Amino acid sequence: MKIKHWLYKRILKFLIILNMKTNLSKLFFIIALAFCFSTGASMNAVKEMKEEIKLNPVDKSALDQLLDDYYEENLKIFPLTATSIGDNRYNDQWPNYISQEVMNGLKKFHAKYKERLEKINRESLSEKDKLNYDVIQWECEMGLEGLKFKDYLMPINQIFSQHLFVPQMADGSGSQPFQTVKDYDNWIKRLDEYLEWIDSAIANMKTGIKEGYVLPKVLAVKMIPQFDEITKGTVEEHQFYTPIKNFPKDFNEQDKDRLTAEYKKLIGERVIPAYKRMTEFLKNEYVPNCRETAGVSDIPMGKEYYSYCVKLNTTTELTPDEIYSIGEKEVARIAIEMEKIKEQVGFKGTLKEFLADVKTNKDLMPFKTREEVLARFEKINESIKPALSKLFTRAPKREMKIERMAPYYEATSQPFYMPGPFDGSRPGVFYVPIPDPEKYNIYADEVLFVHEGVPGHHYQGDWQMNDTNLPAIRQLVWYVGMGEGWALYAEALGKELGLYKDPYQYLGMLSFDMLRATRLVIDVGLHMKGWTREQAMDYMKAYTPIDDAMVESSIERYMGNPGQALGYKIGQLKILELRSKAEKELGAKFNIAQFHEQVLSAGSVPLRVLENKINHWIETEKNNL
Predict the structure, then answer these.
(1) Directed axis angle between helix 567-586 and helix 503-528, to 10°?
(2) Distances from the Cα of 482 to the Cα of 331, 368, 485, 601, angstroms
(3) Which of 297, 409, 458, 506, by CA, is between 20 and 30 Å from 380?
(4) What pLDDT, on a 0 to 100 scale, did the predictor assign at position 327?
């Protein structure tokens, strides 16, 4: 028999590379080559393959080393990330990312790995390693591009800012450990560096006032109580003093006395004064100089900066205008579906009135106890299990628990999923806020569960954290477009999971979808089209059943973090688009479980990288037809 020319070339290339990389025994190599010759190959083909390999060297080992080096150096540069994954080597460090010295270091870091990547022949890599290459390339390019802007002159805001999570680290409820004497000493050093960051923030914000880099006034005002709260009470009552009240039992008296004295001094002489300085600065100098406008386009290079934020958060090349147009079309589409539900349940009135009625409908508030609320989610979890095996090739390795959120912050928080640690010592948890079970509205329970839990964040997170085929850095990185895009895509799987049979539950899904669609319009409207805060709030109220307080906090979130809210819907639409393409091109051979395997096994990647992966899979499947 004769083997086609392209096939024996592939076989020869594989054998030569394998011999180069693994030192095959001479006998095995000769036998393998003899097989190729007997089926139509020639010595010319061997020479041709050797020349091709010489021109296109295999750089896998160089890439592996780069990935290892990048991961280790990344943890040094971002020690808070290291702490969050249980790597305690840098628990005493808090880099000042808004200082010129650290920003110069970041620039060198990204430039160095970009240069190392460019020395690797991407085309010689396997498809898996091409993904690794592309992820690091994205990280380097976006890191360098981001350093061109002066957002360091606006280093804090009311919702995404370092000062907001420091108290949880300080009291031991966050990722900072307080198990050993060294842990306590580490926090003293880390907190001292954080306090230096506060003074740098004040200095940068003063420069920002002079150069026109300031926040909207409505956001800046809300930061005042956030800082002021930390200045109140005695040292012994202070939140940062909590670890002193919770010494481990094995600490000796000498260590406890020393640490008590040092924590008292640090809190009384450094922490409280630093927070007072920021509070007074915000009140007397910053807020009076803040802008009345809502969008980031009003700062210098604002439109260019927003375009960068769009690219960073969507991981696509879509322009703000294109996203705005997509949003308008999605809002119109979903509104039509909502009108159908309104007619189905027999509601007389406008869509806006219908959505308002849903929020107060007592028939949708059937519970008396918190246990009933949690039991409902357990029931949803059980109901979808039969369908999961048809939609996925495997189940997560870790279980997921459903728990009530801590009472002290459930009144102001939304449901969320918390993944378990990398070591697998704890399961993932879906936290549900239930401040008043009798006012708990069930209309969106099913969509909420599939988004935050199964098969949304729990599946995507578990796949990524437990995939030993991914290098360490790929288990760590996370992109809004992919992570939240998958969770929104999971919402769209509801009917395939046997959910949304009740019209109000389907309305819940549509309401969630509408919220993310309105974000596309609102975010671009605020930051590129001169929308006011009030205009954005009115738009959201017209299309979603969200209460006024939530609307206000949502709009101010978009104002404070330009572009972040875009990744959700754009990611969902990209995954739906790729599924539609695969269904069309593969026809009867399309397997939904295999498609999901391809998406989830990618880990968290930029959407353009995911698209390349799925396109390659589609072509491979077509060639195997």
Answers:
(1) 120
(2) 21, 38, 5, 12
(3) 409
(4) 98
- Contact, 555 vs 519, CB < 8 A? no
Give the integer Cα–Cα distance in Å for 453 and 379. 13
- Report helix, strand or coil for 204: helix
| Tokens, residue 254 | 């000498």
Torsion of CA 250, 255, 260, 266, to 10 degrees: -120
Specify the 3-state DSSP secondary structure of 436.
coil
Q: In what order do the strands lie in the sheet with 400-404?
A: 400-404, 428-432, 416-418
Q: What is the 3-state secondary structure (H, E, C) of 144-192?
A: HHHCCCCHHHCCCCCCCCHHHHHHHHHCCCCCCCCCCHHHHHHHHHHHH
On whether the CB atoms of residues 518 and 543 are closer than 8 A, the answer is yes
3-state secondary structure 29-66: HHHHHHHHHHCCCCHHHHHHHHHHHHHCCCCHHHHHHH
- Cβ contact 526:607 at 8 Å: no
Residue-level pLDDT at 408:
65
Per-position DSSP letters for 243-304, written without gaps between them:
HHHT--TT--HHHHHHHHHHHHHHIIIIIHHHHHHHHHHIIIIIGGGSBS---GGGSTTHHH
Looking at residue 160, its pLDDT comes to: 87
- Which residue type occupies 21? K
Q: Which residue has the tokens 């690794």?
A: 132
Beta strands in 290-415 (DSSP E): 400-404
Predicted pLDDT at 111: 98
Calculate the CA dihedral of residues 166, 198, 139, 472 and round it to 10 degrees: -40
Q: Which two tokens stand for residue 481?
A: 């477009």
275-312, pLDDT tens digit by residue?
999 999 999 999 999 999 999 999 999 999 999 999 99
Rounded Cα distance between 461 and 595, Å, is 17
Question: Tokens in use for 453?
Answer: 């839990």
Q: Over the range 228-240, which residues count as b (16 or more CB within 10 Å of their CB) and which as e?
A: bebbeeebeebbb
pTM: 0.87
Those residues whose C-beta lies under 8 Å from the C-beta of residue 299, and which sit 6 or more positions away, are 154, 212, 213, 214, 305
Instruction: Report the amino acid identity of residue 383.
Output: S
CA distance 604 to 486: 10
Q: Which residues, other chains included, contact 474 with Cβ-Cβ below 8 Å and sequence gap of 6+?
A: 67, 132, 135, 464, 603, 604
- DSSP secondary structure letters along 454-496: TTTHHHHHHHHHH-TTS-HHHHH---HHHHHHHHHHHHHTTGG
Q: How many residues does the chain have?
A: 625
**Cβ proximity of 465 and 419 under 8 Å:** yes
Cα torsion 501, 502, 503, 508: sign: negative
Which neighbouring-strand residues pair with 400? 428
Backbone phi and psi for residue 432, each to the nearest 5 degrees, phi listed first? -115, 120
Cα angle for residues 563, 565, 567 (degrees, 5° grid):
85
> If 0-12 CB within 10 Å is exposed, 13-18 middle and 19+ buried, where does residue 305 land?
buried
What was the pLDDT predicted at 521? 98
**pLDDT at residue 624, as a whole number:** 85
C-alpha–C-alpha distance, residues 407 and 578, integer Å: 41
The closest alpha carbon to 488, from 463, 507, 513, 514, belongs to 513
Instruction: Please state, in angstroms and rounded to a whole number, the distance separating the CA atoms of residues 429 and 416.
Output: 8
Dihedral sign computed on CA atoms, order 103, 105, 107, 110: negative
Segments of the chain scoring below 50 in pLDDT: 1-43, 45-60
Checking DSSP bridges between strand 400-404 and strand 416-418, what pairing results, if any? unpaired
